[in-house]
Each structure stands twice: as structure tokens, then as C-alpha cells.
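Figure-free illustration: sequence to structure, shown twice.
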Amino acid sequence: GGDTCEYLLSSGRFLGEKVWQPHSCMMHKYKNSEAKNCLIDKHVVFIGDSRIRQLFYSFIKLINPQVKEEGIKHGNIPFEDKSASIKVDFLWYPEVNGSMRQRIKSWTEGSVAKPHIIVVGAATWSIKIHNGSNEALAQYKINITSIAPLLEKLAISSDVYWVLQDPVYEDMLSESRKMITNEKIDAYNEAAVRILNSSSRNSKARVKVFSVSKLIAQETIMKSADGLHLPESSRDTNAMILMNVYCNKIMKPIDGSCCQPQPPLTLIQKIAFCFFTLSIIGYLIISLIHRNNYRKNKSCTDLESGEEKKPAISTPNISTLEMLLQCFCKLGLIMTYFYLCDRANLFMKENKFYTHSSFFIPIVYILVLGVFYTENTKETKVLNREQTDEWKGWMQLVILIYHISGASTFLPVYMHIRVLVAAYLFQTGYGHFSYFWIKGDFGVYRVCQVLFRLNFLVVVLCIVMDRPYQFYYFVPLVTVWFMIIYATLAVWPQIVQKKANGNCLWHFGLLLKLICLLTCIYFLSYSQGAFEKIFSFWPLSKCFELNGNVYEWWFRWKLDRYVVFHGMLFAFIYLALQKRQMISEGKGDPLFSNRVSNVLLFVSIVSFLTYSIWASSCKNKTECNELHPSVSVVQILAFVLIRNVPGYVRSVYSSFFAWFGKISLELFICQYHIWLAADTKGILVLIPGYPMFNVLVSTFIFVCVAHEISQITNDLAQIVVPKDNSTLLKRLLCIAGFFSGLHFFSAMQDQSRH
């Protein structure tokens, strides 16, 4: 934690050649519209020499990129954006002298309008004009000493920044600038820092020393055109830092953690904190009572025989209440860790930076690990439980590496990851259709169990982390698709395998249902208005709105709109072939005859590679996303056939990947806050200065927490969703009351915010 503003202004490093990473926090890249919204009705002044003029131009280009550097070189340059009432002025004062002092003093007197932001800096002209003399340095100290109180006074109501002098590249300096040495610059900077007294932490009424420019210049000054002025990319970085220092506390961007204060606890968060605290206290009290009772019943030594007598009960029975409190006790401690990682300013956060090696090397590493843990499957059916767990596992690990490496900036990787997300939804369609088709179980218990397991963690995180339900978009997506699958098969007439076996016409009835579903999907995907009307009705709007509208939900749903249907259709065809014994699922046997299997395998490999070539040649994300819903099934089906047609491949699985597959949902959700940071925009830093060690430690904690949450969810599902219908009905009424209370407190919270 600490003062991230101070870190932003004074320290950092380059990721690659152009991406600047401040120490401990994340920098937001401001767009023109965002810069205008932040600086609306503001007056910004840059005072200094040609280096400050460079910073001035880079700053106004953040507001209007069309600006050209055509102003008077040795004179004042005004800039105004009338649409947002923004004024930015450059005032030519190349030396710290009486003229500069008089200008600054004019803002401190009377009712003169003061600039909101003042950026000051100068020294190289003093060195040049006086040929680097010691007398000039002494006069510089006197002049800064006279200006410092005025700047301090201005800093009470304005943001004042003193820009330290950047180093020069002495070999490239012209003869007229040879006296400007880095030794002299360091002496001037040291004098300025000492006089402005920036050694202690800055408060609101203190001049902020902009020293980070020195670090940036040390890395890039050799690319300078004249050895004195910074290259354009470096001064653009300085301007972006300046924008982050001032605007982050106003705009509060998710991926701009620098200079952002810790958000205050909401009413719902306070209630959650009290609930978890009481759960921990309650569990400790019950545990102590049980432990005392257990000690009383503990075996004692028979003095006559010398043998130990064992009590009738060797371990204490755990009551439902104790199990419930134990789960909430663990969950409370875990949620505290979540909050500290991503809401409190306790741990550092850093921006992502993509390199090919940061993505592909870990991929190769986990692939080797997965192959090493190969075992025989218990059953050899197509997409058996072990195989689907393995599939979910390796996909989830690849997605995690994709997120932490920032690989979304590389389009071919992005397109392949989109297929992995689609494959998870394909499994949703396949798995739930197979269950309802074979079991014919449309009871409330089944529905409640699935909904609880899918949504429990997300609901808790919405409360603790103060985020809307739609923020964790994947869970709403699989939840809605589960309900669509359920509704499709449960509505009259209910067609299941047992009924269809008696009369083949029922198969056509089911196909008719699937065609109706496909028609509805097609209509909604091309009718944004109808889709938004459906999900804008209360209470659906409370679940699916993000930033006041449901566009984000429509975009997410549309991106993989057909793949669940493809999963359902594949399950129907596969189960029909299996029932008619048209496929062979014996251990080591190919799925079809050798000839058919070889043809299918060849076609699948060609299709798989063809899709990869197409995805790798994508040039435009929008155009590729438009085609993705229709073509992603090609690679998914190709993979399924490659994995299942050869008997020897179908008979083995990776227990390493399968283990991760069992907690894939928890891994996907937990990464938002305790592996990544700033709601997935950055990377959590538990151990600064050691990137690889940090990733190892944070990953270990992250995986352990995800596994523990999976266990907690399973335990609570047995308690909250019982099989007895009357008890289940009571629990559902309690859950309805809980959400009503949550809605009430949420409304109070929103009202207090407004």
C-alpha cells in the first residue's frame, strides 16, 4: 500500500520498451473523451522552458490529438477546448527568476482566478547562459527559496507540480550546450528538492515533486534528436502520468489504481462483515463446547488391566448448525482476503504486459505436466466424466495464463480463447441435455442444486466486493443457458429417452423443440431491441444491467449464441447412436469401423487446423467476432472426435487437468480478485521486486482458496438445498426473503450515493 501518488510521481520501470509501470500501482491510459470529462471547466498552466513546452504539447494532445506543435518557440502558447471549457496555457519562463516569481505571486493575491493545475520547471537555461557557474547555482537556490512559499500557498487550493530536470545525452549535445552536464543537472535538482522539502510524504497543501521523468529519461534520452529534449514516446508517458495523478481520483478508472483512495465500505458490506464476524464467533463457541464434551468422554487408562478403554464414539458428531457456521467461518476469512487483495490499498497492483514468451512458455509447461499425469479412465464412453473434467481443467489453465499474460492484445490467441469459452458452453448444453434426456428428472431439487452451485460464490462476491451480478458475466451466461435448456425440455410435451424409445415419432417432436429454440436464438441475436426489453424488466434488470444498461449482457450472450444448441444437438445424436448400438465404446476400440474412424479422424484434424489457420489470420476483432458464433463449433467438434474416435486416446485421461477441472468455475471467478487485480485489469503483487516468485506464491494461494470454496459450496448445497420438498420450500422462502432484504438495502445504498 502506501501513498500511490508519491510512487507514481517518483518511481517505476519500463515493461518492454514503451510501457511504463509505476511502482505498486496501475496507470490508466486516458482516451480523449475521458480527459475532457476530467478537465471540464479547468484551467491548467505549464511554466518553464522548452522541455516544459514539450510536456505541454503532449498533455493537450491527450485532449485533442489533432493539435500541431506550431506555436512560438520562445513565447507563451494558449490552448482552449470550448466544448469542455478547458484552458491550457504554456508560459515561457526559461529561468527561475524574478519574472517567474512575479507571475506566480499574481495568482496568490486578491481575487485573481487561480489555475487548477500548475506545472513548473526550469534549470537548463540558467546552466547554459551562465556557462555552468557556481554563482548561477547559488542564485538558483535563492530564487527557488523565494518562490517556494508562493507555490506552497497555491498548493492549498491547486495541484502544483515541480518538474525536476531530466538528464541529457552529453555526446549528442551541440557546442552551445556542452556546459549542460548531468553533474550540473543533479546539483540543480538536489537544490530544488531540498528547498521544496519533498523528503516527507506530501499532503494536500504541499508542492508535488515530479521526479519520475528523470527515470524515464535515463532509459530513453539516447533516442533524443539533440541530446537535450526527450523523444515523443517518453514525453507522452510523462503527460499520461500527469493525467493519472490528477484524474484518477475524479474518474476512478478500474485499471488506474494510482492516486485512487480506498472506496468507503457500503451498507451491505458492513452487514456482511458483521454476519461473518458473528459466524466466526459462533463457530468458535460451539467448537469449544464440543471439545470440552469430547474431552470428558475421552478414553481413560484402566488401572487394573493397564489397557486403554475406548469411548463408544471416537469422534464428535458435527451438527448441521456447526457445519453451517464452520462453512461461513471459512468463507468469512476467505472473503477478508479477497477484500484486502482488491479493495483495500494493502497490496500492490501492476499493469499487464504481453510477450509471446509469457504466454506460450507456461502453456508448454502445463502441457508437459498434464501428459506426465496420464491415467486409465474408469469408463470409456464418449465425453465421460473424467474426460470432461480434464477438458475443463486444461481449458481453464490456458484461460488463466491468457488473462495474467495480457494475451487479449494478440488477436490469434484471443480467437482461440474464444473457442475455449465456447467449448465450456458446449459442455453445458451437452451435459444438462444428457441428464434431462436420460434421467427425465425435472424436479425443483435438481434445478435448485445447479443454480446454487453456479451462483453461490458470485452472490457472495457481489456483496463483499460491491460489484453487480453481470460483472461476473460467465456465471449469468451459464445460468441463463441452463434455464433455457430446462425450459426447452420441461415444457409440454416432456420428451425423454424412455418415452422416445417406445415411439420414434417422439424423436421428431424433440427435434421440433430444438428447431423452435434455434429460431428464438436467431431472432434475439438480430433483434437487440427485443432482447433488451426482455432483460430490462424488473427484477431481471437488477441482475443483467451493467453501467445502467444491458448492452454488455447482450454482447456476451450473442458472442456464443449457437454453441449451447450445438452441444444439445450433439448429445441427442450421440445418445441416439449409442442406443441403437451404432458406435463401439469398448476399451481400446475405435468408435466406428476402422475405415470410418480413419476418415473421421482425418477430416477432424484438417478441420481443426483449418480453423486455427483462419483464427491466426484474423485482422479485425469485430469481423472475427461476427463469424465466431457460427464457426467455433467446427474446432470444438473436431477436438471431440480427435479425443474420442481412437479407442486408445479415449481410454486415458490426465488426472492433473481433471483435478483443476473439478474446480474450474471457482478458478474462473476467484481470479478476478486474488490472482489478477483491479477486477482483472491488472496483476496482484504480494511480493514486490520478484515477479516469478510473486506469481508462484499468489498462484498457490489462489488455487488453494478456489479448492476450499468448492468444498464450502458443496457442503452448503447439501444444507441449503435439501431433498425433502417441504423443507426445500421453506428454504426457498428464506432465500426469497434474503434477496428481498438485499434489494431493500441496495436501494437504500443507491439513494445515499445519489
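We now fold a second protein in the same way, so the two outputs can be compared directly.
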Amino acid sequence: GVRLLLHGLCSNTTVKSLDLKGNNLRTMGAEALGKLLRQNKSIRSLTLEWNSLGMWEEGFSFFCQGLRANNFLQRLDLRNNQINHQGAEELAMALTQNTSLQELDLRWNNIGLLGGRALLNCLHSNKTLKRLELAGNNVPGDILKAVEQALDHNQDREAILSEAQNQVNILSKEVLSLKDEKNKQFMDFVDAVDKHKEEKARSEKMSAARVSQLQEALDEQYSIMNSLKTKLQMTEAALALSEQKVHNLGELLNAMKQEQNSVAECHLRELQQQKQEGADRESRLLHDLSAASEKNLLLRNQVDELERKCKVQQDQLFQVKQDLTNTTAELKLRAVEAEERLETEKRRFKQNLEDMESLRVKEVDRMTQHIEASERSMHNRIQRLEAIRISLEEELSQVKAAALTERGQAEEELIKVRSQARLEEQQRLEHLKEKLRLMTESRDEAQNCCLKQKEMVAEAQAKAKQLSLYADGLRRRLDELQQDLDSKEEEKVTELNKVKVELQEQIGHLEAERAAQDGLREKIAALERQLKALSSNHREALLDKEGEISLLLEKLRMKEAEISRVREEEAQRASFLQNAIMAYVQGSPLGTLSSRK
């Protein structure tokens, strides 16, 4: 029935506690229990009281093999199972490889001295067992004390490991919080960069608007130039019309001159023809000549007026041309100045963009390098402290184990000698107890010194954390200053100078804090050296105590040899007396009578 039950529980994942007390389990049940322990991963408590598992050696060995392979069981009750020293040795071999069992109850079995020693030896390699009950097993008291000390050592080690794990968890949480803060700072920096990009886009839009305004101004200037060109064309057309009029007037003048010449020739011919006529015609001709001269004067006056008008129009045309050249030159100068301003604005804007981009890249690189350096330093510091803690725990465990083994051996030998010569060696034993008490006090003092050193190291770590937090605050302040610089682009030169001065001061503070951190590291190194010196002194003291113990053991051996020699002499004397009494009895008359009877 137990085999079927345990076979069903092999694949079960919900049962946490199993109680099979008083079920008369035999070999098949023990084998089924071993199979259950190998396959089941959910049972944490197993009670097997009053089952006599120790009587079946093969089944109990199979059960111990299953316990060796199990890494989930935490409590095991094996009371009243008739387990002898061989079963205890099997159980000890299983416990050397088990890493989950915390409580083991072996009361009221038959483990004895050998089983107790096997369990004590297994506790040197098993670091998880916290409670082991061995009452009612004929185990000597010194072994019980050594087992209790080993269990106390396991509990202390578990407490130290839990504290270290808590510290590691706290440090990991702090590292994660630092990473989150760095990520937040980086995201804030990215947001600031995005804002800067938005501002840059806004400034680009503004510059584009300004360029469009300049372009509109240029278009207006071009339209003004076109209107001036049209005016120039109109003035040229008017000038061409005036020139045409002048040309026509010249032609008229030439025609008039030709007519005048022709008239003069006609008059001359008429005068030559009419010289012969009479004086009456001469007056008429003179009158005609005066009229012609008057007409000629009128024509000349008209020609002079036309020439003056032509000169005035030419002067006006020259003035218009000069004004046109001046306006074109001014427009060209304005266009050139506008293009130069536009080019300078573009170059300045590109330079500002490149400077801001280079500053952003440098700041991002510096922040990433600083974050990586701080993380590496924190990891290295944690690893060094872990290595120091592990080495100190190993040294303490070695010292405790050596002290326990030596103390156990010394107590066994003292018990033997105490049974033989308790009255004679009581004072020396008290002296030994006093020395052992002094040794334990020195060991406690060394442990207190180690604890003080650990507290000092923890304080140094806390100071280093505070300094790192202060450095992070300074970095956040630097980021805020950078954002203020980004928001105040109009007052770049003055603000940059002020921020440079503040940054130099903060860099000086940071260098001073770095020097302080270096001083703290040197103090930590000095404390580590002091700890090493204390450990070496403690080892030397232990070696001296071991030498004293060895001398006392030699003296005890000499006393035992003397006591054995005295016993042999007493036995020889007793044998001599017995022989003499027997001889006397046989030689006396009573002896003869008794022989006759």
C-alpha cells in the first residue's frame, strides 16, 4: 500500500508535508521512499517516526541514496527507527551532498559513538543543516557539544550569508536605482537635445521666414527696378520722339535754307533780270527782302528755341540716366549686402549647429564614460569586499573547526585520565580549563575585532555611497546648467563664461572629493592590513596554545605511564601476598586438616 501511495506521489506537485508515522515500513517501503525523494520536488516535510527503517540495511541505504539526490526536502523526522551506527554512516554520506535539509530528528535510535562521529564529520561539509536532535542514542556528550557547535556555526554562516545576500540585494537595488537615474538623466538629456532640435527647427523656420522676407524685399526691389526700366524705356521713347522732332526740325531748317537759297538765287536772278527794270521795282524788292529777313529771323529764333529745348531734354535725359545708374548701383549694393548677410547668417547658424552638436556628443561620451567607470568601480569594490568576507569566513570556520576537533580530543583524553587519577590531577585540569577559557576569550576578542573591522568597512562603503550620491547630484546640477544654457541662447557668451567658471569650481570640488575617496580607500587598505595582522597574531596565539596543549598531553601520558607502573607494582605485590597467604595457609595445621577432609 505504501509503495502504491508513494508511486502516486512521485509526480505530485501540491503536497508539501507527508506523515507516515507508525506504518511498519519495510524494505519495499524504504525503496519507494528513496524513489519518491529522487523524483518529487514539492515535499518539504517528511515524518517517518516508529517505522524501524534501520533494521532493513538495503532499503535504508536506498532511502539514503534518494535523500542524497533530493534538493527540496527541509525537515526529516526519523525517531524510533532502530538506526545503528552503519545506518548513521549511510545517512552522513547522504548529508554530505544534500544542500536543502535544515532539520533532522534522530532521537531514540541506536547510533552510538561511531555514528555520532560520522554525523559530526559530515557537518564539516554540510552547511545547510541547522537542527539535529541526537538524544537517546548513546552518543557521548563531547560529540553532542561538537555537533551543537557545528550547527551553531551553520546557523551563523546562514545568518552571515543572508546578511550578505541582503547587502548584495540592497547594492543591486541601489545599482538598479542608479541605472534608472542615469537612464532618466540620459532621457532628460535626450529630451533636452530634442528640445534643442525643435528650437533649431524653429530658428530654421525663422531664418527661412527672414530669407523669404529678404526675398520679398529683393522682389520688391526687382519690381522697382522693372518700373524704373519701364520709365527709362518711356524716357528713351520720349527722347527718340524728341530726336525725331529735332530731326524733322533740322530737315525743315534745311528745307528752309534750301528754299532761302533758292529764293535768294531767284531774287538774284530777278535782281539780275530786273536791274534793267526801273527803280520802282527796286523798292518792292527791298520790301520783299526785309520781309524775307524777318521771316529768317523768326525761323532762326524758332531754331534757337528748339535747340534750347533739345539741350534741356538732353540734360533731363542725362540726369535720368545718372539717377538710373545710381539706383541700379544702390540696388546692386543692397542685393550684395543682403546676400552677404544671408551667407554670414547661414555660416554662423551652421557653425552654431556644429558647435552644439559637438558639445552634445562630447557631453554624452563623457557621461557614458563616467557612468561606466563608476559601475566598474562599484563592481570591483563589491567583488573585493565579497572576497575579503569569504576569506574571513573560511579562516574563522577553519579556526573554529580546528579548535573544536582539538577541544574534543583534549576532552576525551581528559575524561580517560579523570576516571583514573581525578583526585591527583584536579588542579591541573582546572588550570587547563582556565587556559581554555582564556583561549575562548581571545577567540571572542578576535571575532569582535573582525566584527568591528566589518562595521568600519560598512561605514566606509556608506561614505563612498554618500560621495557617489553627491557626485550624482553634482552631475544632475551640471545637466540643469546645460539645459539653462540651451534655453538662453541669446546670452551665450556671458552665460558660457559664467558656466565655465562654475564648472571649473565644481571640477575642483569633484577632484577634492576624489582625493577624499582615495584617502578612504587607503584607510580601507590600512584596515585590511590591520585585520590581516590581527589574524596572523591570532594564528600565532593559537599555535602557542596548541604547543601548550601538546606539552600538557605529554605530561598526562607520563602520568598515565607512572599510574600504570604503580598498578603493575601493586598487582605484583598483591600476587606475592596472595601466594604467601596461600603458602602459609597450606603450611598451617588448619591447612592439613582441610586437606584431610
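Summary for the second example: Residues 19 and 298 are 155 Å apart (CA to CA).
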